[in-house]
Amino acid sequence: MSEKPIQGEKRVFMTGNEVVAWAALAAKADIMYGYPITPQNEIMHYWTRMAPKFGRKFLQTEDELSAGFTTLGGVLSGRKAFTATAGPGNTLMQEPLSMAEMMRIPSVVVIQQRGGPSTATVIYSQQEVTMTTFGGNGEGFRIVYSTSSHQELFDYTIKAFNTAWKYRFPTFVLADGYQAKMRESLSIYDPEEKGIELVKPEAAIGKPAVDGKKEPVHVRNTYNTEEELLAVLTGYMEDYQKCAPEIIEYQEFDCDDADVVVVSHGVVSRAAKGAVQELRKEGLKAGFFRPVTLRPFPADQLRSVADKTKTLLFVESAFGQMAKLAKEGIFGSTVNVDTLFKPGVGITSEEIVAKVKGLL
Amino acid sequence: MSEKPIQGEKRVFMTGNEVVAWAALAAKADIMYGYPITPQNEIMHYWTRMAPKFGRKFLQTEDELSAGFTTLGGVLSGRKAFTATAGPGNTLMQEPLSMAEMMRIPSVVVIQQRGGPSTATVIYSQQEVTMTTFGGNGEGFRIVYSTSSHQELFDYTIKAFNTAWKYRFPTFVLADGYQAKMRESLSIYDPEEKGIELVKPEAAIGKPAVDGKKEPVHVRNTYNTEEELLAVLTGYMEDYQKCAPEIIEYQEFDCDDADVVVVSHGVVSRAAKGAVQELRKEGLKAGFFRPVTLRPFPADQLRSVADKTKTLLFVESAFGQMAKLAKEGIFGSTVNVDTLFKPGVGITSEEIVAKVKGLL
Amino acid sequence: MAKAIKIALAGEGGQGVQSVAQIIAEAANEEGREALYIPNFGVEQRGGVSVAFLQIGEEQIGSPKFQTADIVVALSDRAVRRTRQYVDGNTTFVYDSSIEGVEKDIPQNAGRILAIPAVETSRTELHPRVFNIIIMGAVIKATNVVSEDQARAAIEKKLGYKFEQNPKLRELNFKAITRGMELVEKAQ
Amino acid sequence: MAKAIKIALAGEGGQGVQSVAQIIAEAANEEGREALYIPNFGVEQRGGVSVAFLQIGEEQIGSPKFQTADIVVALSDRAVRRTRQYVDGNTTFVYDSSIEGVEKDIPQNAGRILAIPAVETSRTELHPRVFNIIIMGAVIKATNVVSEDQARAAIEKKLGYKFEQNPKLRELNFKAITRGMELVEKAQ
Amino acid sequence: MSVALKTFSHKGEKGYWTVFPGLCKGCGLCVEKCPKDCLKWSDQLGVYGTPTIEPEMDKCIACGICANVCPDCAITVEKNK
Amino acid sequence: MSVALKTFSHKGEKGYWTVFPGLCKGCGLCVEKCPKDCLKWSDQLGVYGTPTIEPEMDKCIACGICANVCPDCAITVEKNK
Amino acid sequence: MSTLPQMPKSWRLESKPHKFCPGCGHGLVLKALGEAIDELGIQDRVAFGCDIGCSLLAWDFFNVDTVQTHHGRTTPVMTGIKRANPDIICIAYMGDGGGYAIGSQHLVNAAARNERITAILVNNCNYAMTGGQMAPTTLPGMKTETSPYGRDVEQSGYPTQGPEMVAAITREGAYVARGTIANLKQLKSYLKKALENQMAGNGFSFVESLASCPTNWRTNAKDTWAFVEQEMPKYFKVGEIKNPAEKGDE
Amino acid sequence: MSTLPQMPKSWRLESKPHKFCPGCGHGLVLKALGEAIDELGIQDRVAFGCDIGCSLLAWDFFNVDTVQTHHGRTTPVMTGIKRANPDIICIAYMGDGGGYAIGSQHLVNAAARNERITAILVNNCNYAMTGGQMAPTTLPGMKTETSPYGRDVEQSGYPTQGPEMVAAITREGAYVARGTIANLKQLKSYLKKALENQMAGNGFSFVESLASCPTNWRTNAKDTWAFVEQEMPKYFKVGEIKNPAEKGDE
Ligand SMILES: Cc1ncc(C[n+]2csc(CCOP(=O)(O)OP(=O)(O)O)c2C)c(N)n1
Ligand SMILES: Cc1ncc(C[n+]2csc(CCOP(=O)(O)OP(=O)(O)O)c2C)c(N)n1
Ligand code: SF4
Ligand code: SF4
Ligand code: SF4
Ligand code: SF4
Ligand code: SF4
Ligand code: SF4
Ligand SMILES: [Mg+2]
Ligand SMILES: [Mg+2]
């Protein structure tokens, strides 16, 4: 029953949604709670097929509010619980996630972005960046990994559970409909066999009695005075700022002498990478910068790139949601800024190459 | 029955929630849909008392999702409809509001910010700025007025209906628990008597037949291809950018020779105003800048202030939600930036004075 | 900017501090001054101490709440403990002399500390019902935020309909104001 | 970066373009090449044209969708109209010669235009069921993205369990590949 | 309407039977419901390129059930008077 | 527990009756429910500064209803054995 | 000798063939609805709201004012319209997922408030638009994408009895019925009564219809009918459940 | 001769006097619940979830693991806990607004799925925490802050019959009852049965209790009791509605 879902390491060719299901199994996720929404559905489809074989559980809820809140219940009871959603479901998920932020509940959520606002399209976008990093009535005490390939979807889904349980901030794997539905190759593996330690979950509710004595736990999200709240939030902010440097991840290349650095995240960064390589081949000085964590944002890292280059070109399948994070992060920089924004639509290397050439 | 709620102009002393109810009456709002939440409740309390006397309607719904969606229904049918909420209710309201953005439904929403994230406090904050300006799975096709006094609550609530129906973007009056619950004086008036024209609403659904012939209307928020969506959003963005200059409002004084300009919005700007006046009295070169519209943000206006001064001091009852809008708006400026952030807690002139002195 | 006068009033649920604050605010408003009054509120108000924040000045008031007040009035032991935080060297701290067991809690850093026998006065001389009006008298005496006349007018406006039915009540209330003012005078 | 080969396959719901794309992608993957396949999807897929986007190269593929393809295969009139947009001067446009009424819709800007009698071949020579395998043969011939052997192996992997029960099916499928390749050769 | 309204009509003893291939999606619901079992698949293709249907008019009683159960209104039946 | 558990106890023929003013909020629910009508308001103040209650022990039958209906568990009644 | 297809007058010819799959029950429910609208002569006064779910494919289905809303939110949108302009005859059209899961708070509260709207719910035992997941109405043992080993009633309970639930919280004036595409005449009569109930200002009206989803059921025509006619009625009783016209139903 | 108040053992003395108003029905329901927990001896195994509403004031009320959730969301949080760790006895405690309005989709779907949790709903005819607005349970003609002229059944419908609605969608194994603070012994017995039903793994259990809110009703003790004992039962029938122990309730 509970033997390891993956033995050793193997190369597979599958959809991103299947990848997520495998990764959650590999990360020893105990239970998934979910509500259908395209393009996330197949995570549940694969999970419901595989989970029972490994003693894992699933609950289909009545909506995303419930999927989010049941996930929080699962986590509170000391289980590695997760959910997945997209678009309008992500909008609704902000209510439970705001509770997770306030109560430091290490929930894991996979987002497969689709077109917005509203129902829009069920296909693809990068328009859920603002909401995933700073949604709800709070201050963004969250961690957001933006993946770009199936290998990363696998790696970061596993990592998300570790990050969440270690730092106790709700953690998101932010992908998109393309990553969800496309097939490409990757290696899947058992993380522990690879030396990746899996952080152990701990119960808040239902912790067993110690020496026959049970110390009841009382957790809440409501405070009676403004000052109580300020004290709590100030503590959280300190925690967040302290762990941020440990969490931040990014990628860059060819930035040292670049005239234009293409800044992009997620699946768009694949096209950006190709474009920069192409431009370099043509002898044009392009560079590549990609935040992997959108929250915390690799601001210092981008700033030092900005200090070296003439222009940052922000490329996104949204109207500048990542660019906003970047600009606030490197405020004070006088680097030129240009944009290639296509909300809800994929971006190709060719378009980026053309855009960069127009800037040079 | 339907005589004017306010004859002429008169000075009154009341709570902010009462002010909103009077303003909505004065603006000829036809119907309010709402769900209780502190500190917004008394808007409904006053509305339910007064509305029937003037032939206006009210529906208490089962939650904020319903309050939002019924409001959209009301607007679609050609009525001036509005709702009011706060905190977790605002979080939920993002789902209907994302539909309003997509379908250009001129809904009006009054927000009385309270502590966040989660239930937090029922009292006060400025922590709903990110969510109100850019919430949901969209791109922030909204208009947000941040008020600072009862007079403004009255003026801008009336204005919000005009702005919404003229430009057809969902429009918010963003206030807070302090403004909701405090009493101070203001003048209330009949806008038309004052020469303020009230924009006429128009029905999308249920428009009467013309010459016995009814042209059915079909409105939707879902598109089948990415390209269709991009075309729609590009058009919206163009519309938004075109009308933004007409909509933007801000206040500033004493900025020309200032060493430090205090940037704040909403009720905090009252303390900031007092602080700057105090500092000037002491001969210290402080200036005042306040965005009234947080979305669209008065970026150019703030930029020219930033160009003249040494330091911008962002002061907010939040962890920099307005500051983010400002920094992205004036990106490229090299002005120094300092902050006084107290999420969920009021800020006094004395604190600002002390902070500014520390910077000089 | 002439600084506004900042007043914090605190008491138990039934002691009527909110209506005192509101009447004073309205009186000031009637005088054409700028007044801003806000009650404290939270989820656990049920049995909590009730605090009223009141500011009166010549220009628009800044922040609705403040960190230290010019005058703090505390009407119960819990109110004393709850409002210590609003006191500094410029604060006049007024409390009812009948409150027991708060010796250690009286904020000694206050500029002035006045104990007034408002509870007793209301019980023995007037009527427990006008206890809060005595407090109102005390506040306007200690702060001069509104004139006695204006205070009377404000009470008339607020309670006039009751006075119609029972003119004695008017007298009682007006006496209460005067007594409240006297108590402060004496305590000073 | 060696450019990846970009393939768009489009047809009606029952024509099996998605499985063709998937099998080719898996075959390329087995050969150790980088393959990325994504179907189109949307809310109105019910009766819509089905499009498969497939890219095969030596390095990780960039964007999952593309603006113009190296080869476009269209298997119905609606598919022809739907896929015109992916054609430019470097594109080989392949369509079934049995499709009627699309003369005006064939993208004349294509680098090469090939009409192949796949429907007819499947009906008359083989079996309607292997229509999509003929298409697969055509695609691998036109692009050389995978070897014929690898294509066979991939089919074996996918349908092996059916071949066990009915070995004739294997032969039919393999023949279909070969015929598909021939059709393209002939058309060129 | 993306497809021209081509019709295939059949005259029978009891009535006049028509299918609109441009509307028929070949679902077969009508086939199953015909009380006389007189509908069969046709060589003509419907809107999705799948076979449409045709009646054996000698069996058809023009009861209209097939038209009734067609979710696409692809059949009309007129009873002879 | 923010208030010390001061008690006021009364001994009667039928039992022993105690109120904890530190718990009593003066709601009066007990007063209404006493079958012998023997509870009245006391000079002692409860936790919110409102009067608490006291029994007329000569009427009290130690039925415990008052204790039962007190939402704050401010009363205990022990029946004599 | 017809040259035009015999569609309900209120159907919009320009958007036909409609976007539903071959054999989809939505088409039949909307045919019954279209005929009901025609027979009541209310085409110009109707506002049709369609939910997200396959219902959304009906966004341009009728020649009546139509608004496509969010998943589960059609009830409040139409309620909002009705409250603001009671002259409009409001129809909220949704799936079983939209009505019984994500939108159930709206459904039960609109029913409890006796909103003068007509809600029509297509019960096809699954979440069809998203590719066939388990719905509140999925039958015991039935395989879906999220119940790959069959719906386990121990884990997921029995199929939701929607109209029965709605009936339990409505009072006078409500109309509640369950029809089926297997009896279109009856279904149309229920829909007509539901609309008439709204027009009379009596109160909330609700009609569930059993309907086919051959695509996700993976059924051929024969099995489709068998499922609708034999399997579904085992759990869902067809008939009128509450009718204000009848006496003593309270 | 007691020197300690006679509180249920599971009550947390340190947080007493509790935060509810004088005369609040929540205190009585929680007393009955505390006694039920004591009598079943399950204090160490219970997880108590409280909703936003005056229920939140119970966040440190018991000496049992407690989680305060969001308005209307206690049902899913406790469901999530129960599904992840079935050894925990889960109680979801909420108000009528939380249960019948904003959280009604959770309540009806948890009931339909037969979740093994115990939901307890305090019916005080209003939204108390927010200052006394109309609730789904507000009585006809009753004045509240949002029905200042009295609840108009034409506009707002009749009071929601919660347990009846829940009963309509549950099947075997569910326990559903309505108690009242006017009969605490009965209420306690219902609560015990509800918890036992969960412990036995039978299914969902739901107890509504009629309860007082003197603060928002603006009633003195006498009128408080009169309202609970005379007015509320006119619309809310006290008793067991579904009991798996009894035969033939299906
Ligand atoms: C908030 C939200 N959650 C989820 C979805 C995804 N979604 C779209 S349709 C649908 C299911 C529709 O099922 P049903 O209501 O039964 O209608 P059907 O397609 O079966 O007719 C879901 C879950 C969404 N659009 N919005
Ligand atoms: C999403 C959301 N909407 C609204 C509120 C405000 N709110 C808090 S408690 C409450 C009403 C509580 O009423 P009920 O559930 O009946 O409990 P009671 O206070 O009457 O016991 C409301 C509307 C909230 N906290 N969150
Ligand atoms: S009209 Fe009747 S008999 Fe004729 S084909 Fe149709 S169903 Fe069959
Ligand atoms: S029911 Fe209609 S669509 Fe289906 S096969 Fe028959 S004619 Fe064609
Ligand atoms: S024990 Fe019984 S008789 Fe005695 S005071 Fe209490 S209720 Fe009254
Ligand atoms: S019921 Fe309890 S709290 Fe209320 S008055 Fe009696 S003893 Fe006091
Ligand atoms: S998926 Fe099912 S419900 Fe949706 S259109 Fe197709 S057959 Fe109809
Ligand atoms: S407001 Fe009502 S429900 Fe809330 S604590 Fe007070 S009496 Fe109880
Ligand atoms: Mg369905
Ligand atoms: Mg309540």
Notes on the protein architecture:
Chain A is an alpha/beta fold. Chain A is 41% helix and 21% strand. Chain A has twelve helices and 15 strands. In chain A, strands 3-2-4-5-7-6-13 form a seven-stranded mixed sheet, with helices on both faces. The longest helix of chain A has 22 residues. Chain A is globular, with a radius of gyration of 21 Å. Chain C has a single domain, classed as Pyruvate-ferredoxin Oxidoreductase, domain 3 (3-Layer(aba) Sandwich). Chain C has a six-stranded mixed sheet with strand order 2-3-1-4-5-6, sandwiched between helices. In chain C, helix 1 crosses helix 4 and helix 4 crosses helix 6. The longest helix of chain C has 21 residues. The radius of gyration of chain C is 15 Å and the shape is globular. The mean pLDDT of chain C is 92. With 81 residues, chain E is mainly beta. Chain E has a single domain, classed as 2-Layer Sandwich (Alpha-Beta Plaits). Helix content of chain E is 12%, strand content 32%. In chain E, strands 1-2-5 form a three-stranded antiparallel sheet. A two-stranded antiparallel sheet of chain E has the order 3-4. Chain E starts with 7 loop residues before the first strand and ends with a strand. The model of chain E has no long low-confidence stretch (mean pLDDT 93). With 250 residues, chain G is an alpha/beta fold. Chain G has one domain: Thiamin diphosphate (ThDP)-binding fold, Pyr/PP domains (Rossmann fold, 3-Layer(aba) Sandwich). In chain G, strands 2-1-3-4-6-5-7 form a seven-stranded mixed sheet, sandwiched between helices. In chain G, strand 5, helix 7 and strand 6 form a beta-alpha-beta unit. In chain G, helix 3 crosses helix 4. Chain G starts with 24 loop residues before the first helix and ends in an 8-residue tail after the last strand. In chain G, 71% of the residues are buried. The mean pLDDT of chain G is 96. Classes of the chains: A alpha/beta (360), C alpha/beta (188), E mainly beta (81), G alpha/beta (250). Chains in contact: A-B, A-C, A-D, A-G, A-H, B-C, B-D, B-G, B-H, C-F, C-H, D-E, D-G, E-G, F-H, G-H. At the D-E interface, loops of D face loops of E. Strand 9 of chain A pairs parallel with strand 2 of chain H, so a sheet runs across the interface. The complex binds thiamine diphosphate (2 copies), iron/sulfur cluster (6 copies) and magnesium ion (2 copies).
